[in-house]
Amino acid sequence: MNSRRIDRIATVIFWSGALAVIFFLGAIIGYILYHGGKYIDWGFLTKPSQAISAGGGIGPQIFNTFYLLLLSMSITIPIGLLAGVYLSEYAGTNKLTEAIRLSIETLNSLPSIVVGLFGLLVFVNMTGWGYSLISGALALTVLNLPFMIRITEVSIRGVPDGLREGSLALGANHWQTICRVVLPAAFPGLISGVVITCGRVFEEAAALLFTAGMASPAMNFNQWNIFSGSSPLNPFRPAETLAVHIWKINAEGLIPDLRRVADGSAAVLILFVLGFNLTARWLGRRIHRKMTAT
Questions:
Q1: Of 178, 179, 177, 182, whose CA–CA distance to 167 is shortest?
Q2: Cα-flanking dihedrals φ and ψ of residue 257, to 5°?
Q3: Which of 187, 195, 222, 277 falls 20 to 30 Å from 171 in CA-CA distance?
Q4: Taking a C-beta distance cutoff of 8 angstroms, is the pair 72, 144 a contact?
Q5: Quick count: other Cβ atoms within 10 Å of Cβ 47?
Q6: Structure letter (DSSP) for residue 96
Q7: How far apart are CA 289 and CA 284, in angstroms?
Q8: How far, in Å, are 75, 107, 149 from residue 143 at the CA level?
């Protein structure tokens, strides 16, 4: 068998694998949207859930999901970015950095249920915060931080050395080279890491069951005092996210319109993840073009 035929066979195999992934992904998304899309309307997106009567919605769960995303990523992104820059640009090759990388890889492989139990012990019980948004955000930070550090390090190491050498040759110092040359060049990889990390926040349920809780108190959206118990911005209140809500109503089955809420919630979650990914990548490309002037 000559090399041209081998190349054609390999190309067919690769294309078949890619098409199979697209097919199964499209089938899953289509199935969820077909069964849940018909239940989505303005009332479903804004009303609170009803435990007794039918006709409830997922308004508080949507707000809790995005608020938790904001809290978690505001911690994960800065720490992950700084740690990735240190490991790729400043840390040498020694036993300490090898131990750090081993710890990152180990944490990155931890099941989310283990992180949830750790969060229950530390962020819920030891701090005295109880089930709260801040406990859930910190647990998700523990879950996502190793991945963010790793993707930052890999993206920065992928920048050609010629760009660094050219910047240093023009008189820039190391920190200026990192901020003005290396990070803009690594920006697409960083955006991919942020998008994947945010997607994990959207879909996570196991860790939040033990930290953020499975119930949301009545929220007054006219009360913006962050220290008020009824304020939606209070990070120390318990909060049920959309993924936890889907698990809860399917596990307990206490509401009369179970199927409508479950299917509709799953469809909304899929649409949010798709919309967030597309928007983040579009915004990332625009920012990258402005930063690199291409």
A1: 177
A2: -105, 50
A3: 187
A4: yes
A5: 15
A6: H
A7: 9
A8: 12, 7, 11
Predicted confidence pLDDT, tens digits, the chain (294 residues): 678 888 888 899 999 999 999 999 999 999 999 988 888 888 888 888 765 556 677 888 999 999 999 999 999 999 999 999 998 888 877 888 888 888 888 888 888 899 999 999 999 999 989 999 999 999 999 999 999 999 999 999 888 888 888 888 888 888 889 888 888 888 888 888 888 888 888 888 889 999 998 887 788 878 888 888 788 889 999 989 999 988 888 887 677 778 888 889 899 999 988 888 888 888 877 877 776 665
Q: Report the residue count for the chain.
A: 294
Q: Is residue 177 within 8 Å of residue 164, measured between CB atoms?
A: yes
Tell me the C-alpha distance between 214 and 233, whole Å. Answer: 18
Cα 291 from Cα 243, distance rounded (Å): 36
One-letter amino acid for residue 38 of the chain: K
Residue with tokens 């899953």, as numbered in its chain:
28
> Looking at domain 40-292, what is its CATH homologous superfamily?
MetI-like (1.10.3720.10)
Residue 292 and residue 180 in contact, taking contact as beta carbons nearer than 8 Å = no
What b/e sequence results for 163-199 when a residue is b if at least 16 CB atoms lie within 10 Å of its CB, and e otherwise? ebeebeeeebeeeebbeebbbbbbbbbbbbbbbebbb
Separation of alpha carbons 234 and 181, rounded Å: 39
Question: The tokens of 139 are what?
Answer: 């647990």
